[in-house]
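This section describes the prediction task in plain terms. A model, or a person checking by hand, is given the sequence of a single protein chain and must write out its three-dimensional structure as a string of tokens. No templates, partner chains or ligands are provided. The sample shown here is typical of the held-out split.
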Amino acid sequence: MVVQQYRDGGGARAVRALAVAGVIAVTAGCVGGGGESGGSDGSGQRAVAAERPLDVLGQAAGVLAEAGGAEARTSMETAAGGTRVTIRGEGTYDFRRQMGRLKVVLPTDAAGADDHRPITELLAPGALYMKNRGAGVPDDKWVRIDTTALKDGNLVTGGVTDPMAAAELLRGAGDVTYVGKSELAGVTVHHYRGVADLNRAARAASPQSRGALSAAAKGFGKDAVPFDAYLDEEGRLRKVRHRFTFATEGQEAAEITVVSTLLLYGFGAPVTVTLPDEDDIYTGEIRQG
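The expected answer:
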């Protein structure tokens, strides 16, 4: 295994804490393109190697924008006090328009009942739309959330980290280790491990992502986001895992780590996203649960 180091500047109730509040909220007591394009090595194939990992990771979002559409699978997991909660999603995402459509499956509730319908999420720059949101929302209505107004910039609130935001976070990479080559779903990938700085990523992000990432940089207690990223020979991000850490509030305040994983495949897949009309958006009160 190749390891090289690079530096750039510098109790059980606690987890009943990954629950529906957008789709999820971290609170004690409930369960519930833009950017630069990548470079080439002169042979028509992008150079993905140990020698310049900060460049490779910084270009990942731009490479995805060039690639266009892709299929995506996501998972978001937290654990504390012996309880593990996982939310999964699957769908397609257009990196050029930074828009996607995902079906998100919530975990069973604290009693083990699996009565949650899948939630349909539409992702767009600065906005998250959800259908089958839950209590108090009519079945035919969507809920719209301004992601630039969320403390986490929708990096965890929706139960899915927006795929472009996940890639844009790598623009803030530092202390990167090139772990080496491996294989992922039959594809050769290069594995990088490091820590992304939210503020640096927000400053370097494309205009469409900057608002949400800036909100996250202000809202998270820690700017540092450890990650593992896997890029193929063409510099396309195939898998990335981020570890977000922040504190809950209340009498049982605790530090919670949420692990968000994105898998990308089927590049070139057609992506159709039609945002709902204003008349289809619910504006009433949303009950928890």
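For orientation: Residues 1-45 have pLDDT under 50 and may be disordered.
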